[in-house]
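Exam revision sheet. Question 4 asks you to relate a sequence to its structure. Input first:
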Amino acid sequence: MLTCGDTFLIEDEEGLDSHLWIVLTPPNEGEVVIVSVTTERRKSEKLVRLKKGDHPFITHDSVIPYSYAKVVTVESIETAIKNGVAKKARTSV
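Answer key, structure tokens:
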């Protein structure tokens, strides 16, 4: 079962790049809030900044763009992992 802090990778819509997602909240009624990690750019949201080494997947300055946060079901993430659409990145951040 997914818990707060779990991380997983999902390819973008074009299948060109994988993005790290973090489970931000503990499951509540079968749903969690997830946020993605993206490369830091000049106009990026900078509330949470991550550096190389903060997670094995992070290789350069990155940020959490909260405007892209999603509420999803635990079942949808677990199904994506089971079907190979997503891959667990590490137990927790």
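Marking note for examiners. The beta strands are 7-11, 18-23, 31-36, 38-39, 49-50, 62-63, 70-73, 86-90.
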